[in-house]
Fold this sequence. Notes:
The structure holds two protein chains of two kinds.
Chain A: H1 3-19, H2 25-39, H3 54-65, H4 79-87, H5 90-101, E1 108-110, H6 111-118, H7 133-146, E2 153-155, H8 156-165, H9 180-192
Antiparallel strand pairs in A: 1-2
Helix pairs in contact in A: 1-2, 5-8, 6-7
Chain B: H1 2-8, H2 25-44, H3 46-49, E1 52-60, E2 72-75, E3 78-81, E4 92-95, E5 98-103, H4 104-114, H5 118-128, H6 132-137, H7 139-148, H8 154-162, H9 167-196, H10 201-213, E6 223-228, H11 242-245, E7 249-257, E8 263-268, E9 271-274, H12 294-301, H13 303-313, H14 321-335, H15 345-363, H16 373-377, H17 380-394, H18 406-419, H19 421-424, H20 456-470, H21 473-484, H22 491-499, H23 502-510, H24 515-528, H25 532-540, H26 543-550, H27 556-569, H28 573-581, H29 584-591, H30 603-622, H31 626-634, H32 637-644, H33 650-663, H34 667-675, H35 678-686, H36 691-704, H37 708-716, H38 720-726, H39 733-746, H40 750-758, H41 761-767, H42 774-787, H43 791-799, H44 802-809, H45 815-828, H46 834-842, H47 849-865, H48 869-875, H49 879-886, H50 892-905, H51 909-917, H52 920-927, H53 933-946, H54 952-958, H55 962-968, H56 974-987, H57 991-999, H58 1003-1010, H59 1015-1041
Antiparallel strand pairs in B: 1-5, 2-3, 3-4, 4-5, 6-7, 7-8, 8-9
Helix pairs in contact in B: 1-9, 2-4, 2-5, 2-9, 4-5, 8-9, 9-17, 10-18, 12-13, 14-17, 15-18, 20-21, 20-22, 21-24, 23-24, 23-26, 24-27, 26-27, 27-30, 29-30, 30-33, 32-33, 33-36, 35-36, 36-39, 38-39, 39-42, 42-45, 44-45, 45-47, 47-48, 47-50, 50-53, 52-53, 53-56, 55-56, 56-59, 58-59
Amino acid sequence: MSAMNRKLIQTLVETISKQVEHFNKTEIECLIREFNVLVGESSIPGRAAHGLDRGRFRSILHNIFGMTDDMIMDGVCRMDGMSVLLRGTLDEKIKYCFHVFDLNGDNYISREEMFHLLKNSLIRQPTDEDPDEGIKDLVEITLKKMDHDHDGRLSFADFERAVKEENLLLEAFGNCLPDTTSIERFEQHVFREQPDQ
Amino acid sequence: MGVSLTRAAQWTPASSGTGKLESTPMNESLLKEILRFVEQFGSQHPQEAEHVFEEPLRWSTTLEASDFKTDYDISDADVQSHEKDSEGRPLLQLSPPTVYVRSFSQLSKLVHLADDKNLEEVRACLEENRDPVVKILGPSFAVILENEGANTDVLSLVGKVKEQGEDMEVKVKLFLLLQNMDNQLLSKCLKEISERVRLDPTAVKTEVELLKRFCSEGEKRLLKLVRYTSDYEFSNGCHAPPWRQARGEICYLVIEPCDTETLYITCSTAGVFLNGGEEEESGYERTSDTYKDLVTLLKSRSPHFAENANKQDFAAQELPSTQKIQHVESVDAEEQGQPQRSYEQQEKNVHEKARQQHTPNKAGGEKKYEPCPRWKNLGIMTLISHHYSKAEEKKPAKSSGEEKSGLNALLSAFCLCSKTPAGAAPVDAFSESSSESEEEEEQPERRPESNTDLPSEYWQIQKLVKYLKGGDQTATVLTLCAMMDFNLMQETCQLAIRDVGGLEVLINLLDTDEVKCKIGSLKILRKISHNVQIRRAIVDMGGLQSIVKILDSPVKDLKALAAETVANVARFRRARRTVRQYGGIKKLVKLLHCVPNLASLTANQAKDVEVARCGALALWSCSKSTKNKGAIRKAGGVPLLGRLLKSPHENMLIPVVGTLQECASEESYRIAIQNEGMIKDLVKNLSSDNDELQMHCASAIFKCAQDKQTRDLVREYKGLQPLVSLLSKANNKQLLAAATGAIWKCSISMENVAKFQEYKALETLVRLLTNQPEEVLVNVVGALGEFAQIPANKATIRKCGGIKSLVDLLTGTNQALLVNVTKAVGAFSLSSRLDGVRLVWSLLKNPSADVQSSAAWALCPCIQNAKDAGEMVRSLVGGLELIVNLLKSTNNEVLASICAAIAKIAKDKENLAVLTDHGVVPLLAKLTNTTDDRLRRHLAEAIGHCCIWGSNRASFGDAGAVAPLVRYLKSKDKAVHQSTAMALYQLSKDPNNCITMHGKGVVKPLIHIMGSDDETLQEAAAGCVRNIRLLALANRKAQLFY
């Protein structure tokens, strides 16, 4: 890697470290390097932060985080997305998850959205008359538990309160965060094994 | 043949010499068997068939001369065979109506000739030859057999026989054939028994119980409902009204299978069949075929039942047959009044049930085929059980239907119990005793009679469990969260989760890789595991193994939850053992690694501390088993606990101190606790505000303070004052017991007593002598006993009225308490209170050796200090005899104390005379060979004092007590020397004793003792030597002058 390149990375690290609090500079540098490796475009300086195409990124998320397709959002393309995924506090994660689940972006998770998110979560038994009945019921149970203001939909406040009460509800409608072992593996891979050049 | 004929065949009561075989089906088949044997004998064993009987078999036959054909000499009515024996007698001779037969070949020919009357022939033959084997083989052979005993070892028999000539060899072969036949007959009989028996009320009841179990096992559920139409049970075990009982009907059942319509079933002695339902009119009509039992009926009616019954619940019955035999034998033993304590309670219940079934059977008037009691003595029970277990292995699914006779019911009851996991390991070989007093009893399950009045939670939980089973991880987590919203501490919810099969699902989740599912599952499990039955169910399902596996997960939340669940589940022995066996102790100890006492913890460290706390909780539960204590120590848990002990948090300290005090019952722990400097922390926590923590600290000190260094440490760290101040918490009895215990043990050191005096502990303790539970009293009295070693304290106790309370306590029954009370009373010499002495004396009758010895010790000062001790002792009727009899005890401590008491009593001449009359001298002499120095000392003292009366000196000499006493002088114990020297001095007043002593070389050690500082010792030794010397001089003189 050329000296030129290194300089560019340094400046990038400086700017990013001002925005993102969970990583120190070396870690940011490592992440950028990893990113460059992944994108395979390290020779073109300056485009690193934007050069990752969707397909590639998706496969990375698949491989490293074991995420499913519908969970991948645009937002994570930025470094602070990475920060939430790897080092996020509970509040950050709640915010992030809520946005993931809020499919239409109206700042509420509605019954329909829940239904959509959960529709594949129960095994259909051939004996059931209405295959969707179980899921509807599950949605009702969830609403009863999480909808504190009883308006039939989850606002951010509802969601936040429910998750604070019971952390397990953070990813209530689907897996959208890497689990601890994946995080560890990833961090090890990026921060420690990166050869110093 | 002998055994089966004498035991198995049913004879009519024989008033005259010959009984008749009853014409029962069993005898019928026996006869047929014997007939076939005889028929084939000629062709199958030609050599043996030719053997001539010692005595002919003789019976009155119905055969006539005309029946005989060739090979026979027929003259008029008489018939003789051509074949003759060595002495020329025909092997078959008929002189109507009597026939004589001398060999098996002739027998089998005769049987062939008799044709259709052959059965009668065999019957007549057997009836008139009650002991055919003796006749065939001769009385000499029978004698050999008798000498060999019942378990004839064939090889040794053959060896013996060989010495007696060739002829015998055939006899032996014949004998073996007959014996073989005998065995076949017996097993045939047994098969007969098992096939012929019909249904009876107890068998039906057992089966109904069995089916009821299948109604409520969640996923394994085979039936919805099993119930009697009427719950009223007549005394004979039937539920049917008497006028239907007359038709052999036992009861009516309503069974709802899972897949078909409700079945209305009649159970009758002839079998089970469907009836017309609950309508009045047609209700009793039979509407189906008759089946031999309920299971068969259900299988034919409900495919679901048939399918699942085979694979699930009956499968467990295919156990190795040896185990069943064990069970049978254990019943046998129990019937003879030896309860098998080692079985788990659950199993015992089954024993009970089985016995209940057994008894009405015996009492009932119905005809039954039970083996006669003699069979048991023959060890045929084992045979039977072999037979049954074989039958059951062949057709396990049907086995429960075969329970028809009482015996069979018994056996299948054991099959049932072996299905429960408790039964799978019938004998609990693990000895885990110690502090398991809080061990929870296995409680009989309370189940709702039917599921009509189930709470709404039940259905909601059932629905959730359905989603749990069929959901992916997202749905699972949502469902688990919803489930947490129920009140999981409520029993209905706990049992509902189990009954709808939720427990299995929760446990299965633990084996997945989904952290969130595991967390959710554990969050529920840790709550519902507060329930005893759930705990057992978790262990039974193997859930504890999965939980233990999670203990070393990298996720801290998981570890903490798992440890907390272990803490709840491991409340009973089997669970604790499981934790240990799956390496749980090591993992739990590992959880204790954390940095507990930083003032400000990061979130991460706080989690570590929480994990450690849960680990300590789990260890606390586990530490109630002795083996686990050892495992904790080996895993390096003690220093870690020591570190956690410095934690400032009460919720951490309680489990840590709890574990420590539990473990402090082991000496290795006490040493470790001392060495790790934990006493300081324990003392510090005595001053906490938390009663529970204080209690555990006090009880840890109680256990550790047996060691002197620990006692000193407690004082050094100023632990005595907080202990005394704990005495004011009179409402918390557990705390009070622990605090008084600690005070008792600490007061063994006199320095501590002095400190306690400063804090006015004594007055408080005396006040605690009344209206306290026994565990407090034991400790209080123990402490008073120690305090009373200082004279000033005695006065205080007297002044506070402690004596009266103590004497009152003498009437108790708690042995630990009595030991302590007698010790305390002993310190006071109750001479002023005759009633006290009387009570203490009567404690000598207590069966506990500890109580006996402490009572005897307490008596010593009483007798010594009483003004008119002789009169006082005499006033206790039978007291002296009691004392002398206790010299027959085997406990050295008792013996020593009694010897000490005798020494005191013997100071009064009259009493000594009574003692002598009761034979005290030979009893004391018998004890002289002991090596126990404590006993030696008091024994020698007693002997010394007993010498004073009459001819006792000579009697001791005659009883051989002198020589052993001389050996006592070699002991290292000064006190032994002193009392021995006194005794020898007394004994030496008898010339013969002097000779013995001298012969044993007493002079040298005595001279040595004369150089002692102790004046009495000097005097006694010198006196003894003087006596010996005087005798020698007298002898000399006698020789010189006469």
